[in-house]
Structure formats: structure tokens, C-alpha cells
């Protein structure tokens, strides 16, 4: 079996998150939004979850956000798992662990709910991670996760690429590729989840300058972790050119620029006999033509 | 160790339900809890994962390595 190509440097991610831990709440708005999206999905589900895992808990935003809400009543125990030990120390829950989402340390059929707010775009092998999650879930267990989607940072990506090309005559990958939502429904099905749902939430963020946007990405621990990231950093000439392009294309009436983020939320259940499923082909008890009140014709 | 420190250490006991759900991230086999050393030991992987302040550190690069037992 060949492993999929590795895109991301996970130990660099741990390092970036450790470094971002001190000021993590300063650029918290996207994570808050993603957590809200997860909670919204969970609120609509009338179910008790005995043991839940937040597998990319970061500073414990999900645990804090549900405290005192009806969602907290649905979860008996919340385990907070996080790659960065420094972020883990900021969580307020009583059951915490430091772990890598790519090597889930949970036994088969051990969890009733797994959530992941904006962690899934940094894993190398998303199908592999989803399979691990499904195995760790008990039958009829639920997974809800989110990640940045393909619309994310399209403006910055294009401006940086063009500016670097113009200044250096070539460019390297500065922003990671992101998954597209139609592919994710298929991925959930392929990795064995039933009743998969994928939902996309576009967030436009206004900044006074592209450099402020890039500073925020660092504060979020979201700066480049691509294994093939260019060894040469962006220089002043490239940043100035990219900023000029950005202002030229995406400035609003007040002279502020817009950055798009797409937060994709996906959910699926581990199969259980009690779940609704499609009937077998040919098992219908009534003709479609009769139901529609039309005459059946030849194809 | 002062009484306060002893008390703090006991307060940071790992939650038994978390302990029950955890397996070795490498072999996916059960772990042995060494309460005195504060380690979670995976005998067949030859890895001992540290528990710091009641928080298991389930990362291979943070684990103590030893000669694995034959499965």
C-alpha cells in the first residue's frame, strides 16, 4: 500500500501553535465562527452523547462555548485533545490530552461524538483521519468537523503569486491547497460514514491592510506549514507589490480590503442498524408511474 | 513535598473514563497505566507516554523508548 504524499509539516504546525498560544484569542473570530457552526449542527440533533472528543481543541474554545448551553447537557464527558501542549494548558476541561489528529489514540468503538473545529485542513491524509475517527466512534456515533475550503484566501493567494512572479520571475506555494465541498461528501461516503452532510459558510473579513491579514494568520497559528514551502521568504518588494495588487482589486469604499474565508462543516454517522437507509433496488411495492399518475412508456 | 503540592497532584489524576478509551497511537493496542512513574506504557511498541499534570502526552516524539516486548 502506498501512502498519500505528505503535504504538511505537522511538527512545524505544533511549533507554530505553541508559538501562537500566548496571543491565541487575539485573532479568534474565525475559530469562534467555526465553533458556532459546530454548535448549530449539534443543537439540531436530539441525542445524548456519553463520551465526546474534541480532537483539535486548541485553547478549548468549543468546551467554553458550550458551557451553560443546552449542548453541554447533551454531552456527559468532553475530552479535549490538542497537538500543542501550550494551547492544551489553556483549556478549562478536566479530561485533556496532547495528541496528533493523524494518529488518534482511541480504541475502536470508544467514543459517541467527535468534533474538530478548523483542524482538518492541516492533516496530510484526510481519508485516513476520517477512517480513524469512524473506527473510534461507537455504532450510531457522530462526527462533526470543519476545515477551510477552496474559497479561502483566494485574493491573497493570487496577489502573492503574481507579485512574486513579477519580482523574482518565479513563485513558490505560500498558501496551502484547500478541499472543495463537493469532494467532501464523496469522501465521507468513501470513508464509511452514513447520512453525510457538508455545509459551507463564507466569511468576508475586512482589513485595513494585507499585512494585517497576514499578521492575523500568524496569530491563529495558520502560517505556511507546507513541506514544499519555499526556503526563500517573501521580501519587502514582493509584499509591497502584493499589497498594491490587493488594494487595486479588493478594496471597498472606505479603502479597506476584503479577505474571504470558507468554513466547510462536515458531519456523518457511524452506521447502525437503527438508521434509515435506502431501500434495495427493485423492492418498491408501488409503481412510480402510478404514484405520479402518468402512463408508463417505453424507454 | 508540601501538603498543598500533594493535594494538587492528586487533583490532577487522569480521568478514569479517558484512561479507559486511550490506546497506543502506533499499535492501537491497550496501554498500561504506571501510576507511580506517571506513564502510559505501550509494551509492544516499546513506548512510554508521559503524563504531565494529569495530561497524557500521546506523541511518539515525546515518549520514552524501550526495547519492545515480542507480541
TrEMBL record, chain A:
Residues 91-144 form the Methyltransferase type domain. Keywords: Methyltransferase, Transferase. The keyword Repressor does not apply. GO terms for molecular function: S-adenosylmethionine-dependent methyltransferase activity. This is Methyltransferase domain-containing protein. GO terms for biological process: methylation. The keyword Methyltransferase applies. It holds the Pfam family Methyltransf_11.
Automatic annotation (TrEMBL), chain B:
It comes from Asticcacaulis taihuensis. This is UPF0434 protein SAMN02927928_3246. GO terms for cellular component: cytosol. Belongs to the UPF0434 family. Pfam families: Trm112p.
Amino acid at each position: 500500500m502506498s501512502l498519500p504524499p505528505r503535504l504538511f509539516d505537522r511538527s512545524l504546525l505544533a511549533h507554530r501553535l505553541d508559538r501562537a498560544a500566548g496571543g491565541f484569542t487575539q485573532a479568534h473570530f474565525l475559530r469562534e465562527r467555526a465553533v458556532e457552526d459546530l454548535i448549530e449542527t449539534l443543537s439540531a440533533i436530539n441525542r445524548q452523547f456519553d463520551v465526546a472528543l474534541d480532537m483539535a481543541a486548541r485553547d478549548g474554545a468549543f468546551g467554553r462555548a458550550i458551557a451553560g448551553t443546552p449542548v453541554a447537557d447533551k454531552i456527559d464527558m468532553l475530552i479535549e485533545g490538542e497537538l500543542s501542549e501550550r494551547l492544551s494548558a489553556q483549556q478549562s476541561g478536566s479530561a485533556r490530552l496532547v495528541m496528533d489528529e493523524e494518529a488518534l489514540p482511541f480504541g475502536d468503538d470508544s467514543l459517541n461524538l467527535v468534533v474538530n473545529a478548523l483542524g482538518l485542513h492541516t492533516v496530510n491524509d484526510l481519508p485516513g483521519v476520517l477512517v480513524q475517527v469512524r473506527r473510534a466512534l461507537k455504532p450510531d456515533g457522530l462526527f462533526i468537523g470543519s476545515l477551510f475550503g477552496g474559497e479561502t484566501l483566494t485574493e491573497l493567494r493570487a496577489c502573492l503569486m503574481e507579485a512574486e512572479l513579477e519580482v523574482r520571475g518565479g513563485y513558490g506555494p505560500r498558501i496551502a491547497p484547500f478541499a472543495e465541498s463537493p469532494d467532501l461528501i464523496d469522501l465521507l461516503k468513501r470513508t464509511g460514514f452514513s447520512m453525510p452532510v457538508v455545509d459551507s459558510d463564507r466569511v468576508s473579513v475586512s482589513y485595513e491592510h494585507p499585512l494585517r491579514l497576514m499578521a492575523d494568520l500568524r496569530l491563529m497559528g495558520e502560517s505556511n506549514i507546507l513541506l514544499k514551502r519555499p526556503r526563500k521568504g517573501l521580501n519587502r518588494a514582493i509584499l509591497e507589490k502584493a499589497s498594491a495588487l490587493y488594494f487595486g482589486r479588493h478594496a471597498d469604499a472606505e479603502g479597506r480590503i476584503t479577505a474571504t474565508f470558507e468554513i466547510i462543516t462536515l458531519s456523518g454517522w457511524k452506521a447502525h442498524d437503527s438508521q434509515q437507509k435506502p431501500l434495495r433496488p427493485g423492492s418498491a411495492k408501488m409503481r412510480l408511474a402510478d404514484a405520479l399518475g402518468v402512463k408508463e412508456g417505453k424507454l | 513535598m508540601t501538603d498543598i503540592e500533594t493535594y494538587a497532584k492528586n487533583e490532577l489524576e487522569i480521568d478514569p473514563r479517558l484512561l479507559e478509551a486511550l490506546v497506543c497511537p502506533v499499535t492501537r493496542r491497550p496501554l498500561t497505566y504506571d501510576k507511580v512513574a506517571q506513564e502510559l506504557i505501550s509494551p509492544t511498541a516499546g513506548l512510554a507516554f508521559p503524563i504531565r499534570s494529569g495530561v497524557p502526552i500521546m506523541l511518539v516524539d515525546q515518549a520514552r523508548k524501550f526495547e519492545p516486548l515480542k507480541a
